Amino acid sequence: MYSISSVLIGCLIIFYIIFLWKNWKYVKFSWKVNGFFLPVLPFIGNTYISLLTGKKINPISLAEIAHKIVGLPVSFWFGHQYNYLTSDLNDAKIILNHPKCYDKAAIYDSLRYYFGDGLILAPYDIWKLHRRHFLKSFKPKMLKTYYAIQYRQSCNLVQELKHEKCLENIYEYFNTYSFTSFFVGTLGLAEDEMFADMGRIGQIVSEVQELLNELILNPVVPAKIWSKWFPAGKAVDKLINEGTTYAKEIIKKKKEQHKDIISFVENNNEVSLMDLLLTVDNQILSDTEIFNELMLLTVASTDTTGFTLGSCFILLAIYPDIQEKVYKEIIDTLADSYEDITNLKYTEAVLWETLRLFPPGPFIGRKCLADIDLGGKVLPAGASCLISAYHIHRDAANWVEPLKFDPARFLPENQSKIKPYSFLGFSAGPRDCIGKGLSMMQMKTTVANVVRNFKITTDYKSIGELQLESCVTMRVVNISNCYFEPRKYVA
């Protein structure tokens, strides 16, 4: 009779023989990279490192541990998938521009079970066609159209803040605001078309995202099994079904506006994103397909804008001298028209600096479809590369006093000093963020109207007090109060 320990040892030997046979090219490459000595355990890979620290699995905690102990770049096995985690600028330049690295990293594969090949997740060939289609909604002329709507939304926000005064969770508050602005502005819904349960859609988007973090960061359970047998998976299915019902109502309203929606989109230069969503590849998408696109685009839009606005107001509260400079620029510029907004150079620099310190997407993940020469080493086909924008943005080799909040870095006269690929707030390369111009316009409009009307303070005393975690997007763990005191004089 064999003892249990003998059987387990035998199983481990068989596992490692098979593992090495299937993954030899990655194992061989990992010898050239930090972290090669970390044991790879069956099913979970190296994720145990995060658990040993008492923290839940999340990329920021793993990257921080790796950065402190062995330094980046580092080899990391998420389950049995090899990942190359790097903060090297040359790596970033090559990976983000290489035609064989346009596909998303394997860590996002589980999301395709729910959302298919939407713009955010699509393989390059599909993404290229869809991006060209959606670009019609992000042209400069459309930004002017969106501005009037965003300005009204920011005015509504100002009125709400006069009653709120203290925000206990500034991130949740501005995520909700960004969500409403996205639906009213970018999607082309008139404000009188908003229905009573619009807030519920925002809750669904937020809840689905939080639950899916559990799936994305689980290296063991496939999405199909997770969906059918795990409570969180069942909850996601229920929420998506509920969200699809609301989406059908929105879709119905838009279809009623244009009898021949395909002809309307083809023959008009200024078209809302919702109209474009209805007609991808000259076909009317199903309600489920439209909801999938809506979910992904909404998360991408509201998370970037909401998180950055929350972080920006906290930073302005921590640094009242910078807040005063923003206020002075706004008063001097008036900031009521689209042209005024484009002239707010210091306010824009504040937002860029916020994105540097707190990138909403701390990692950019790409899959290598061929061997990629990184100069000195060749990353093998099939590997995933995770570029840490978070560490690039906080590296003293790239930025003087990287933890200092210094918007002057991004003023026009200083931008030539910024190293290429040392700032990845909206990613970079051909597959960068399609809505970066719109997002910046929304944020500048909001900051201008809020700072003009309120003096902002917070219980935070320094940047170091904000504790961060991430999955696909960044989160602040320890939320503290933020106060909005109406100014005595408003221009």
Written overview of the protein:
The chain crosses the membrane at residues 6-24, 36-54. It is found in: Endoplasmic reticulum membrane; Microsome membrane. This is Cytochrome P450. Heme binds at residue 433. This protein is α+β, with helices and mostly antiparallel strands and 491 residues long. It has a single domain (4-486), classed as Cytochrome P450 (Cytochrome p450, Orthogonal Bundle), CATH 1.10.630. Helices cover 54% and strands 9% of the residues. The chain has helices at 4-30, 48-52, 59-69, 89-97, 109-115, 124-134, 140-164, 170-186, 198-216, 223-229, 231-257, 261-266, 273-277, 287-318, 320-333, 338-342, 345-357, 389-393, 436-453, and strands spanning 74-78, 81-86, 166-167, 363-367, 372-373, 378-379, 384-388, 454-458, 468-470, 474-476, 482-486. It has a four-stranded mixed β-sheet, with helices on both faces. Helix 7 packs parallel to helix 19 (436-453), helix 9 crosses helix 11 (231-257) and helix 14 packs across helix 19 (436-453). The chain is globular, with a radius of gyration of 23 Å. The termini are far apart. The mean pLDDT is 86.
Features:
alpha+beta, 11 strands, 19 helices, 491 residues, three-stranded antiparallel beta sheet, single chain, 9% strand, Cytochrome p450
